[in-house]
Please model this.
Amino acid sequence: MTNLDVEWAKDWMRRASANLTEHRMELIDLDRAIGDGDHGENMSRGFSFVLERVNDNPPDDVAGVFKLVAQTLMAKVGGAAGPLYGTAFMRAAKVAEGDLDAAWVGTMCEAALDGIVTRGKATTNEKTMVDAWTPAIAAANAAAEAGKTAAEALRAAADAAAAGAEATIPMKATKGRASYLGERSIGHKDPGATSTSYLLATAADAAEAVG
Ligand code: ADP
Ligand code: MG
Model:
């Protein structure tokens, strides 16, 4: 298994764009239930622009891909998710150097979460994407410590993020638009936590495709 490189990062963006387009309606429906219904459109549009830019001006390294993602999402995606994911990818770009190995996967997720928390000031159990990124870090670090590959660490992170997204269902939202609903936000899965699990799943898909 090779370490994660620029080809992986570009393939991740190809897969993210396709996957988020595929899940556009599902994310719209989740956001309709507890928000304003734009999350699926925000994410699929945002990552389509990212892919266009990656194809037009292919970056030389992983940090370059992540910076382009950050700039594109901040410029093109409205709502909370654009700046939140934008900051996440900007922070991830800053740690994308040296050996991008299994141990780095946890570092990347931690940098992303730091960006999201700096920007959005949410903590765990507030029914946001923080509830997907937080368990992803622990799972990635555990996989790395167990001697797994980078692809396996990404898969562990993605699976933990998916479980984290499921775990938002009984939570009451206290941050973001969903918090306006108070108790009525209970019983619905958070759209941002769900899109985080899809993003990480496509990162794992891209790493597994390299072999
Ligand atoms: P908006 O809420 O402005 O319509 P989106 O619908 O694109 O933006 O994104 C909503 C998602 O953003 C939520 O599901 C949640 O996961 C995430 N979110 C909102 N506010 C915060 C915050 N303060 N911290 C972390 N994540 C947040
Ligand atoms: Mg919304």
Observations:
- The domain at 6-209 is CATH 1.25.40.340 (Serine Threonine Protein Phosphatase 5, Tetratricopeptide repeat).
- The chain has one domain: 6-209.
- The CA atoms of residues 138 and 211 lie 24 Å apart.
